[in-house]
Protein backbone atom coordinates (compact mmCIF):
# COMPACT_ATOMS: atom_id res chain seq x y z
CA UNK A 1 0.00 0.00 0.00
CA UNK A 2 2.81 2.42 0.88
CA UNK A 3 4.35 1.73 -2.52
CA UNK A 4 1.22 1.75 -4.70
CA UNK A 5 -0.87 4.53 -3.13
CA UNK A 6 1.54 7.44 -3.86
CA UNK A 7 1.79 6.30 -7.48
CA UNK A 8 -1.99 6.22 -7.91
CA UNK A 9 -2.30 9.60 -6.23
CA UNK A 10 0.34 11.11 -8.53
CA UNK A 11 -1.48 9.72 -11.56
CA UNK A 12 -4.82 11.17 -10.42
CA UNK A 13 -3.14 14.50 -9.61
CA UNK A 14 -1.55 14.71 -13.05
CA UNK A 15 -4.84 13.95 -14.82
CA UNK A 16 -6.72 16.54 -12.76
CA UNK A 17 -4.17 19.27 -13.54
CA UNK A 18 -4.33 18.41 -17.24
CA UNK A 19 -8.16 18.48 -17.21
CA UNK A 20 -8.16 21.96 -15.67
CA UNK A 21 -5.80 23.46 -18.24
CA UNK A 22 -7.44 26.02 -20.50
CA UNK A 23 -10.80 26.02 -18.70
CA UNK A 24 -12.07 29.50 -17.82
CA UNK A 25 -15.65 29.05 -16.55
CA UNK A 26 -14.98 27.29 -13.26
CA UNK A 27 -17.04 27.36 -10.05
CA UNK A 28 -15.17 27.05 -6.75
CA UNK A 29 -17.04 24.95 -4.15
CA UNK A 30 -16.24 24.79 -0.44
CA UNK A 31 -18.00 23.27 2.55
CA UNK A 32 -17.11 22.29 6.11
CA UNK A 33 -17.51 18.94 7.84
CA UNK A 34 -16.86 17.33 11.23
CA UNK A 35 -15.40 13.84 10.90
CA UNK A 36 -15.78 10.93 13.33
CA UNK A 37 -12.95 12.35 15.47
CA UNK A 38 -14.69 15.73 15.68
CA UNK A 39 -12.06 17.40 13.54
CA UNK A 40 -13.09 20.52 11.63
CA UNK A 41 -12.37 19.80 7.97
CA UNK A 42 -13.03 21.88 4.87
CA UNK A 43 -13.26 20.35 1.42
CA UNK A 44 -12.53 22.34 -1.74
CA UNK A 45 -13.55 21.37 -5.28
CA UNK A 46 -13.77 22.79 -8.77
CA UNK A 47 -16.92 22.22 -10.83
CA UNK A 48 -18.30 23.22 -14.20
CA UNK A 49 -21.56 22.40 -15.90
CA UNK A 50 -21.31 19.18 -17.95
CA UNK A 51 -17.85 18.42 -16.51
CA UNK A 52 -16.86 15.96 -13.77
CA UNK A 53 -15.78 17.82 -10.59
CA UNK A 54 -12.14 17.98 -9.49
CA UNK A 55 -11.03 17.66 -5.86
CA UNK A 56 -8.60 20.43 -4.91
CA UNK A 57 -7.92 19.32 -1.38
CA UNK A 58 -8.96 18.90 2.23
CA UNK A 59 -7.80 21.32 4.94
CA UNK A 60 -8.11 20.94 8.71
CA UNK A 61 -9.09 23.95 10.84
CA UNK A 62 -9.41 22.14 14.18
CA UNK A 63 -8.51 24.59 16.94
CA UNK A 64 -8.53 27.47 14.46
CA UNK A 65 -11.49 29.77 14.09
CA UNK A 66 -13.21 29.52 10.71
CA UNK A 67 -12.90 33.24 10.03
CA UNK A 68 -13.12 34.82 6.61
CA UNK A 69 -9.32 35.30 6.59
CA UNK A 70 -8.66 31.64 7.40
CA UNK A 71 -11.17 30.44 4.80
CA UNK A 72 -9.51 32.69 2.22
CA UNK A 73 -6.18 31.06 3.10
CA UNK A 74 -7.79 27.63 2.63
CA UNK A 75 -9.12 28.67 -0.79
CA UNK A 76 -5.77 30.11 -1.88
CA UNK A 77 -3.88 26.95 -0.85
CA UNK A 78 -6.47 24.73 -2.53
CA UNK A 79 -6.20 26.55 -5.87
CA UNK A 80 -2.40 26.56 -5.69
CA UNK A 81 -2.29 22.77 -5.17
CA UNK A 82 -3.46 22.11 -8.71
CA UNK A 83 -2.22 25.31 -10.32
CA UNK A 84 -5.66 26.85 -10.81
CA UNK A 85 -5.47 30.51 -11.83
CA UNK A 86 -8.01 32.55 -9.80
CA UNK A 87 -8.87 34.36 -13.05
CA UNK A 88 -10.44 31.13 -14.33
CA UNK A 89 -12.93 31.16 -11.40
CA UNK A 90 -16.18 32.91 -12.31
CA UNK A 91 -18.23 31.98 -9.23
CA UNK A 92 -17.96 30.75 -5.66
CA UNK A 93 -20.64 28.53 -4.14
CA UNK A 94 -20.85 27.77 -0.41
CA UNK A 95 -23.51 27.39 2.26
CA UNK A 96 -24.58 30.51 4.14
CA UNK A 97 -23.28 30.57 7.74
CA UNK A 98 -21.80 33.92 8.73
CA UNK A 99 -18.14 32.88 8.17
CA UNK A 100 -18.92 31.61 4.67
CA UNK A 101 -20.79 34.80 3.76
CA UNK A 102 -17.87 36.85 5.08
CA UNK A 103 -15.46 34.67 3.10
CA UNK A 104 -17.43 35.23 -0.13
CA UNK A 105 -17.44 38.97 0.49
CA UNK A 106 -13.70 39.11 1.24
CA UNK A 107 -12.73 36.88 -1.68
CA UNK A 108 -14.94 38.87 -4.03
CA UNK A 109 -13.20 42.06 -2.93
CA UNK A 110 -9.84 40.46 -3.70
CA UNK A 111 -11.04 38.99 -7.01
CA UNK A 112 -13.81 41.40 -8.13
CA UNK A 113 -14.83 39.35 -11.19
CA UNK A 114 -16.14 36.51 -9.00
CA UNK A 115 -19.89 36.04 -8.36
CA UNK A 116 -21.27 34.01 -5.46
CA UNK A 117 -24.62 32.26 -5.29
CA UNK A 118 -25.18 30.88 -1.85
CA UNK A 119 -26.85 27.82 -0.67
CA UNK A 120 -29.31 27.54 2.29
CA UNK A 121 -28.63 24.79 4.83
CA UNK A 122 -31.63 22.70 5.80
CA UNK A 123 -32.10 22.05 9.50
CA UNK A 124 -34.20 19.10 10.63
CA UNK A 125 -35.87 18.68 14.00
CA UNK A 126 -35.42 14.90 13.82
CA UNK A 127 -31.62 14.95 13.62
CA UNK A 128 -31.11 13.97 17.26
CA UNK A 129 -32.86 10.61 16.82
CA UNK A 130 -31.03 9.91 13.58
CA UNK A 131 -27.61 10.89 14.92
CA UNK A 132 -28.00 8.78 18.09
CA UNK A 133 -28.99 5.52 16.39
CA UNK A 134 -26.53 5.96 13.54
CA UNK A 135 -23.70 6.69 15.98
CA UNK A 136 -24.52 3.76 18.30
CA UNK A 137 -23.33 0.44 16.89
CA UNK A 138 -25.49 -1.62 19.27
CA UNK A 139 -28.71 0.40 19.33
CA UNK A 140 -28.44 1.11 15.62
CA UNK A 141 -28.26 -2.63 15.02
CA UNK A 142 -31.21 -3.28 17.34
CA UNK A 143 -33.30 -0.70 15.48
CA UNK A 144 -32.41 -2.33 12.18
CA UNK A 145 -33.63 -5.71 13.47
CA UNK A 146 -36.93 -4.28 14.75
CA UNK A 147 -37.39 -2.28 11.53
CA UNK A 148 -37.01 -5.42 9.40
CA UNK A 149 -39.69 -7.11 11.50
CA UNK A 150 -41.93 -4.16 10.61
CA UNK A 151 -40.95 -4.53 6.93
CA UNK A 152 -38.92 -1.31 6.88
CA UNK A 153 -35.83 -2.09 4.84
CA UNK A 154 -34.07 1.30 4.77
CA UNK A 155 -32.09 2.85 7.60
CA UNK A 156 -32.24 6.29 9.16
CA UNK A 157 -30.82 8.92 6.84
CA UNK A 158 -28.46 11.69 7.92
CA UNK A 159 -27.62 12.92 4.44
CA UNK A 160 -28.88 12.84 0.88
CA UNK A 161 -27.29 13.66 -2.44
CA UNK A 162 -28.84 17.11 -2.45
CA UNK A 163 -29.34 19.25 0.62
CA UNK A 164 -32.57 20.61 -0.83
CA UNK A 165 -34.18 17.24 -0.13
CA UNK A 166 -32.84 16.62 3.39
CA UNK A 167 -35.72 18.02 5.43
CA UNK A 168 -38.60 16.19 3.79
CA UNK A 169 -36.76 12.91 3.15
CA UNK A 170 -35.56 12.67 6.73
CA UNK A 171 -39.03 13.48 8.06
CA UNK A 172 -40.53 10.75 5.86
CA UNK A 173 -37.78 8.39 6.98
CA UNK A 174 -38.44 9.08 10.65
CA UNK A 175 -42.17 8.50 10.16
CA UNK A 176 -41.45 5.14 8.50
CA UNK A 177 -39.53 4.13 11.63
CA UNK A 178 -42.19 5.33 14.08
CA UNK A 179 -43.42 1.84 15.06
CA UNK A 180 -39.89 0.46 15.22
CA UNK A 181 -38.61 3.34 17.36
CA UNK A 182 -41.58 3.06 19.73
CA UNK A 183 -41.20 -0.72 20.09
CA UNK A 184 -37.48 -0.46 20.74
CA UNK A 185 -37.72 2.36 23.27
CA UNK A 186 -40.38 0.44 25.25
CA UNK A 187 -37.80 -2.21 26.10
CA UNK A 188 -36.46 -2.23 29.65
CA UNK A 189 -32.81 -2.21 28.56
CA UNK A 190 -33.53 0.79 26.34
CA UNK A 191 -34.69 2.85 29.33
CA UNK A 192 -32.43 1.45 32.06
CA UNK A 193 -28.85 0.25 32.19
CA UNK A 194 -28.70 -3.56 32.28
CA UNK A 195 -25.42 -5.31 33.03
CA UNK A 196 -23.54 -2.03 32.86
CA UNK A 197 -24.59 -1.44 29.25
CA UNK A 198 -25.65 2.03 28.12
CA UNK A 199 -29.38 2.48 27.43
CA UNK A 200 -30.87 4.73 24.79
CA UNK A 201 -30.24 8.37 25.62
CA UNK A 202 -32.99 9.73 27.84
CA UNK A 203 -33.75 12.71 25.60
CA UNK A 204 -34.09 10.37 22.61
CA UNK A 205 -36.58 8.16 24.48
CA UNK A 206 -38.55 11.24 25.52
CA UNK A 207 -38.61 12.49 21.93
CA UNK A 208 -39.79 9.14 20.58
CA UNK A 209 -42.73 9.06 23.02
CA UNK A 210 -43.71 12.68 22.39
CA UNK A 211 -47.14 12.37 20.71
CA UNK A 212 -47.25 16.05 19.77
CA UNK A 213 -43.89 15.71 18.03
CA UNK A 214 -45.18 12.89 15.83
CA UNK A 215 -48.24 14.95 14.90
CA UNK A 216 -46.01 17.92 14.07
CA UNK A 217 -43.82 15.63 11.96
CA UNK A 218 -46.89 14.54 9.99
CA UNK A 219 -47.86 18.16 9.51
CA UNK A 220 -44.29 19.02 8.53
CA UNK A 221 -44.44 16.39 5.79
CA UNK A 222 -47.81 17.61 4.50
CA UNK A 223 -46.67 21.22 4.41
CA UNK A 224 -43.16 20.66 3.03
CA UNK A 225 -43.73 17.75 0.66
CA UNK A 226 -44.51 20.10 -2.26
CA UNK A 227 -41.05 21.59 -1.73
CA UNK A 228 -39.18 18.38 -2.48
CA UNK A 229 -39.00 19.38 -6.14
CA UNK A 230 -38.51 23.04 -5.32
CA UNK A 231 -35.88 23.59 -8.00
CA UNK A 232 -38.17 22.74 -10.89
CA UNK A 233 -41.60 23.18 -9.31
CA UNK A 234 -41.23 26.20 -7.03
CA UNK A 235 -44.30 28.04 -8.30
CA UNK A 236 -46.50 24.95 -7.97
CA UNK A 237 -45.17 24.35 -4.47
CA UNK A 238 -45.99 27.94 -3.56
CA UNK A 239 -49.57 27.54 -4.77
CA UNK A 240 -49.94 24.16 -3.02
CA UNK A 241 -48.74 25.40 0.36
CA UNK A 242 -50.93 28.50 0.24
CA UNK A 243 -53.99 26.27 -0.31
CA UNK A 244 -53.24 23.75 2.45
CA UNK A 245 -56.19 23.30 4.84
CA UNK A 246 -55.83 23.42 8.61
CA UNK A 247 -56.79 19.99 9.93
CA UNK A 248 -58.04 19.11 13.39
CA UNK A 249 -55.14 18.98 15.84
CA UNK A 250 -52.81 20.99 13.62
CA UNK A 251 -50.82 23.93 14.93
CA UNK A 252 -52.32 26.89 13.09
CA UNK A 253 -49.30 29.04 13.93
CA UNK A 254 -46.94 26.67 12.14
CA UNK A 255 -49.06 26.63 8.98
CA UNK A 256 -49.27 30.43 8.89
CA UNK A 257 -45.55 30.68 9.57
CA UNK A 258 -44.72 28.23 6.75
CA UNK A 259 -46.94 30.09 4.29
CA UNK A 260 -45.53 33.48 5.27
CA UNK A 261 -41.90 32.37 5.13
CA UNK A 262 -42.40 30.58 1.81
CA UNK A 263 -44.01 33.64 0.30
CA UNK A 264 -41.13 35.84 1.50
CA UNK A 265 -38.34 33.47 0.48
CA UNK A 266 -40.04 32.79 -2.85
CA UNK A 267 -39.25 36.36 -3.86
CA UNK A 268 -35.97 36.72 -1.94
CA UNK A 269 -34.55 33.78 -3.91
CA UNK A 270 -35.01 35.84 -7.05
CA UNK A 271 -31.52 37.37 -6.79
CA UNK A 272 -29.97 39.44 -9.55
CA UNK A 273 -27.80 36.54 -10.65
CA UNK A 274 -30.67 34.03 -10.71
CA UNK A 275 -32.98 36.42 -12.53
CA UNK A 276 -30.52 37.42 -15.25
CA UNK A 277 -29.80 33.72 -15.82
CA UNK A 278 -33.52 33.09 -16.24
CA UNK A 279 -33.77 36.05 -18.61
CA UNK A 280 -30.87 34.77 -20.71
CA UNK A 281 -32.47 31.39 -21.26
CA UNK A 282 -33.90 31.72 -24.79
CA UNK A 283 -37.17 30.00 -23.83
CA UNK A 284 -37.62 32.03 -20.63
CA UNK A 285 -37.01 35.62 -21.68
CA UNK A 286 -40.78 36.19 -21.75
CA UNK A 287 -41.09 34.57 -18.34
CA UNK A 288 -38.39 36.74 -16.72
CA UNK A 289 -40.16 39.94 -17.79
CA UNK A 290 -43.89 39.41 -17.35
CA UNK A 291 -47.04 41.08 -16.06
CA UNK A 292 -46.48 39.60 -12.61
CA UNK A 293 -46.51 42.10 -9.76
CA UNK A 294 -42.99 41.10 -8.75
CA UNK A 295 -41.59 40.91 -12.28
CA UNK A 296 -38.49 42.86 -13.11
CA UNK A 297 -38.12 45.09 -16.16
CA UNK A 298 -35.78 45.50 -19.11
CA UNK A 299 -33.93 48.23 -17.22
CA UNK A 300 -33.07 45.63 -14.57
CA UNK A 301 -31.38 43.52 -17.23
CA UNK A 302 -29.32 46.57 -18.20
CA UNK A 303 -28.27 47.28 -14.62
CA UNK A 304 -27.40 43.70 -13.67
CA UNK A 305 -25.50 43.00 -16.88
CA UNK A 306 -23.49 46.21 -16.60
CA UNK A 307 -22.63 45.43 -12.99
CA UNK A 308 -21.28 42.01 -13.99
CA UNK A 309 -19.45 43.51 -16.97
CA UNK A 310 -17.84 46.05 -14.63
CA UNK A 311 -16.66 43.27 -12.32
CA UNK A 312 -15.13 41.46 -15.24
CA UNK A 313 -13.35 44.59 -16.43
CA UNK A 314 -15.09 44.93 -19.78
CA UNK A 315 -14.40 48.07 -21.81
CA UNK A 316 -16.91 50.85 -22.39
CA UNK A 317 -17.28 49.74 -26.02
CA UNK A 318 -18.13 46.17 -24.96
CA UNK A 319 -20.59 47.47 -22.37
CA UNK A 320 -22.36 49.57 -25.01
CA UNK A 321 -22.55 46.59 -27.36
CA UNK A 322 -23.86 44.50 -24.47
CA UNK A 323 -26.78 46.91 -23.94
CA UNK A 324 -27.72 46.76 -27.61
CA UNK A 325 -27.53 42.97 -27.52
CA UNK A 326 -29.85 42.84 -24.52
CA UNK A 327 -32.45 44.98 -26.23
CA UNK A 328 -32.29 42.93 -29.43
CA UNK A 329 -32.44 39.69 -27.46
CA UNK A 330 -35.44 40.91 -25.46
CA UNK A 331 -37.35 41.73 -28.66
CA UNK A 332 -36.28 38.38 -30.23
CA UNK A 333 -34.46 40.14 -33.05
CA UNK A 334 -31.69 38.64 -35.19
CA UNK A 335 -29.37 36.99 -34.35
CA UNK A 336 -31.14 36.09 -31.09
CA UNK A 337 -34.12 34.27 -32.57
CA UNK A 338 -35.16 30.74 -31.67
CA UNK A 339 -34.14 28.70 -28.66
CA UNK A 340 -33.80 25.21 -27.19
CA UNK A 341 -34.15 23.46 -23.84
CA UNK A 342 -30.42 23.57 -23.07
CA UNK A 343 -29.72 27.29 -22.80
CA UNK A 344 -25.94 26.92 -22.55
CA UNK A 345 -25.82 24.75 -25.65
CA UNK A 346 -28.00 27.24 -27.56
CA UNK A 347 -25.73 30.16 -26.76
CA UNK A 348 -22.57 28.19 -27.63
CA UNK A 349 -24.05 27.19 -31.00
CA UNK A 350 -25.15 30.76 -31.84
CA UNK A 351 -23.26 31.78 -35.00
CA UNK A 352 -22.10 35.20 -33.80
CA UNK A 353 -18.77 36.56 -32.63
CA UNK A 354 -18.42 37.26 -28.89
CA UNK A 355 -16.54 40.47 -29.67
CA UNK A 356 -19.37 42.01 -31.70
CA UNK A 357 -22.06 40.36 -29.54
CA UNK A 358 -20.71 40.21 -25.95
CA UNK A 359 -24.07 39.01 -24.63
CA UNK A 360 -23.09 35.56 -25.90
CA UNK A 361 -19.95 35.56 -23.73
CA UNK A 362 -21.94 36.75 -20.71
CA UNK A 363 -24.62 34.07 -21.14
CA UNK A 364 -22.16 31.20 -21.62
CA UNK A 365 -20.27 32.16 -18.45
CA UNK A 366 -23.45 32.47 -16.37
CA UNK A 367 -24.78 29.13 -17.62
CA UNK A 368 -21.45 27.52 -16.74
CA UNK A 369 -21.86 28.34 -13.04
CA UNK A 370 -22.66 25.38 -10.80
CA UNK A 371 -25.25 26.87 -8.38
CA UNK A 372 -24.89 24.36 -5.54
CA UNK A 373 -22.23 22.70 -3.37
CA UNK A 374 -23.66 19.19 -3.64
CA UNK A 375 -20.38 17.84 -5.03
CA UNK A 376 -18.59 18.68 -1.77
CA UNK A 377 -21.43 17.12 0.22
CA UNK A 378 -21.07 13.99 -1.91
CA UNK A 379 -17.31 14.02 -1.39
CA UNK A 380 -17.77 14.08 2.40
CA UNK A 381 -20.50 11.44 2.22
CA UNK A 382 -18.05 9.16 0.44
CA UNK A 383 -15.46 9.84 3.14
CA UNK A 384 -17.86 8.55 5.79
CA UNK A 385 -17.30 5.08 4.37
CA UNK A 386 -13.55 5.60 4.51
CA UNK A 387 -13.63 7.23 7.94
CA UNK A 388 -15.34 4.28 9.64
CA UNK A 389 -14.87 3.06 13.21
CA UNK A 390 -12.02 0.74 12.18
CA UNK A 391 -10.31 3.45 10.12
CA UNK A 392 -10.84 6.37 12.50
CA UNK A 393 -7.08 6.86 12.91
CA UNK A 394 -6.74 8.17 9.35
CA UNK A 395 -4.94 11.48 9.10
CA UNK A 396 -6.38 14.38 7.13
CA UNK A 397 -3.78 13.93 4.33
CA UNK A 398 -4.80 10.26 4.05
CA UNK A 399 -8.45 11.30 3.87
CA UNK A 400 -7.59 13.75 1.10
CA UNK A 401 -5.70 11.05 -0.80
CA UNK A 402 -8.43 8.42 -0.52
CA UNK A 403 -11.19 10.91 -1.29
CA UNK A 404 -9.33 12.21 -4.34
CA UNK A 405 -8.70 8.69 -5.61
CA UNK A 406 -12.34 7.72 -5.17
CA UNK A 407 -13.40 10.78 -7.15
CA UNK A 408 -10.78 9.93 -9.79
CA UNK A 409 -11.92 6.31 -10.19
CA UNK A 410 -15.60 7.32 -10.23
CA UNK A 411 -14.89 9.67 -13.13
CA UNK A 412 -13.16 6.90 -15.07
CA UNK A 413 -16.07 4.52 -14.47
CA UNK A 414 -18.50 7.17 -15.69
CA UNK A 415 -16.46 7.83 -18.82
CA UNK A 416 -16.26 4.10 -19.58
CA UNK A 417 -20.02 3.76 -19.09
CA UNK A 418 -20.65 6.62 -21.51
CA UNK A 419 -18.32 5.09 -24.11
CA UNK A 420 -20.15 1.77 -23.77
CA UNK A 421 -23.48 3.48 -24.35
CA UNK A 422 -24.74 2.72 -20.87
CA UNK A 423 -27.12 5.05 -19.08
CA UNK A 424 -25.58 7.08 -16.28
CA UNK A 425 -27.39 7.80 -13.06
CA UNK A 426 -26.88 11.53 -12.98
CA UNK A 427 -25.14 14.45 -14.63
CA UNK A 428 -22.35 15.73 -12.43
CA UNK A 429 -22.23 19.43 -11.55
CA UNK A 430 -25.69 20.00 -13.02
CA UNK A 431 -28.93 20.49 -11.14
CA UNK A 432 -31.50 19.50 -13.73
CA UNK A 433 -32.92 15.99 -13.94
CA UNK A 434 -34.07 16.08 -17.55
CA UNK A 435 -32.91 12.97 -19.42
CA UNK A 436 -31.83 14.99 -22.44
CA UNK A 437 -30.60 18.07 -20.57
CA UNK A 438 -32.00 21.57 -20.32
CA UNK A 439 -35.26 22.80 -18.85
CA UNK A 440 -38.76 21.36 -18.96
CA UNK A 441 -40.03 23.13 -22.08
CA UNK A 442 -43.71 22.37 -21.44
CA UNK A 443 -43.42 23.73 -17.90
CA UNK A 444 -41.77 26.91 -19.16
CA UNK A 445 -44.52 27.45 -21.75
CA UNK A 446 -47.16 26.86 -19.08
CA UNK A 447 -45.55 29.44 -16.81
CA UNK A 448 -45.31 32.01 -19.59
CA UNK A 449 -49.00 31.55 -20.35
CA UNK A 450 -49.89 31.74 -16.64
CA UNK A 451 -48.11 35.05 -16.19
CA UNK A 452 -49.72 36.47 -19.34
CA UNK A 453 -46.63 38.15 -20.67
CA UNK A 454 -47.32 41.01 -23.09
CA UNK A 455 -44.47 42.17 -25.37
CA UNK A 456 -43.67 45.84 -25.52
CA UNK A 457 -44.20 47.72 -28.81
CA UNK A 458 -41.38 47.39 -31.30
CA UNK A 459 -40.71 51.14 -31.13
CA UNK A 460 -40.50 51.15 -27.32
CA UNK A 461 -37.35 52.77 -25.92
CA UNK A 462 -35.54 52.98 -29.22
CA UNK A 463 -32.66 54.70 -27.43
CA UNK A 464 -32.18 51.77 -25.00
CA UNK A 465 -34.46 53.31 -22.41
CA UNK A 466 -33.20 54.44 -19.02
CA UNK A 467 -29.71 52.96 -19.06
CA UNK A 468 -28.02 53.28 -15.66
CA UNK A 469 -24.74 55.11 -15.29
CA UNK A 470 -21.94 52.82 -14.19
CA UNK A 471 -18.21 53.32 -14.01
CA UNK A 472 -16.36 50.73 -16.06
CA UNK A 473 -13.18 49.79 -14.25
UniProtKB/TrEMBL annotation:
<protein>
    <submittedName>
        <fullName>Unplaced genomic scaffold K443scaffold_80, whole genome shotgun sequence</fullName>
    </submittedName>
</protein>
<dbReference type="InterPro" id="IPR012337">
    <property type="entry name" value="RNaseH-like_sf"/>
</dbReference>
Amino acid sequence: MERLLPGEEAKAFSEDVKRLEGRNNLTYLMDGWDDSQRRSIYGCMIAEVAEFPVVLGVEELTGIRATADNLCDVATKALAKKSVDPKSIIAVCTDNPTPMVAFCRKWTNEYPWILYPTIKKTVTSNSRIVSFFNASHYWGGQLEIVAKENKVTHGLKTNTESRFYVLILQALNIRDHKASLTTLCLRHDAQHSVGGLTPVARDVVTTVFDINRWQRTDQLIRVCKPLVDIIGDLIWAHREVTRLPLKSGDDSGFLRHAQQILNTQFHEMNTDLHWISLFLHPLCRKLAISNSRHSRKLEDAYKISLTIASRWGWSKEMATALLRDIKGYFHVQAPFQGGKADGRDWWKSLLVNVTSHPLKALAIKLFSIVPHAAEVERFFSNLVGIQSVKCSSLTVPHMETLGTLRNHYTRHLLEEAIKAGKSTRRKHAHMHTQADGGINVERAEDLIWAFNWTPLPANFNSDLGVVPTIHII
